[in-house]
Amino acid sequence: MSTRGLKIALGILVLVNVFALAALATTLVQLNRVETRLEAEHRPNGERRSPRQMLRDLDPQTRERVGEALRASALAAKPDFEEARRLRREAVTTVTTGDFDPAAVTALLEASRAAELRGRKRLEDDALALMATLEPRDRARLAPLLARSGRSRGGGRGDRPPEAQPD
């Protein structure tokens, strides 16, 4: 190919890349707008806000104390959630191996659920103990912590009001 042909090909390639980047940027901006709009629709009373957003509404001293307590609680519950994930991965591995044993997989899944429930119970108990130390106004701001499902990024069935959950 001649130098002129290479220059033309390079110019076309640059233009295509610029248009692809512009399309990607536009898509990301629109996706963010849609997610923001959907999130606003799904939390008329703020029940799906992240803990970080809830903490912003508190006065600085209370925010620091509550933040430390929530971090400590999360760190204390972390081993239970890690165990639940490990057991679930082990169950998946057991299913994919040649010597499939339904009873072993069932036992692993039950142990995984038990570990997850232990972790959630610890988080909920710690949140209740923390709420007992707060003023009513701050308790009301943090009350949605108790309504959270296992997936904090939303989409879980526990995030929807009972009347919106399928039977």
Short description:
The chain has helices spanning 3-42, 51-56, 60-96, 102-131, 136-142. By secondary structure, the protein is an all-alpha fold.
Q: For the record, give the distance between the C-alpha atoms at the N and C termini, rounded to a whole number.
A: 66 Å
Beta-sheet strand percentage? under 5%
Radius of gyration from the CA trace?
A: 24 Å
- Mass-distribution shape: flat
Count of DSSP E strands? 0
Give keywords.
167 residues; mainly alpha; flat
Can you walk through the features of this model?
With 167 residues, this protein is mainly α. 72% of the residues lie in helices and 0% in strands. The protein contains five helices and no strands. The chain has helices at 3-42, 51-56, 60-96, 102-131, 136-142. The longest helix is centred in the first third of the chain and has 40 residues, at 3-42. It is flat, with a radius of gyration of 24 Å. The model is unreliable at 150-167 (pLDDT under 50).
List the helices and strands and how they pair.
Blueprint (H helix, E strand, L loop, with lengths): L2 H40 L8 H6 L3 H37 L5 H30 L4 H7 L25
Helix pairs in contact: 3-4
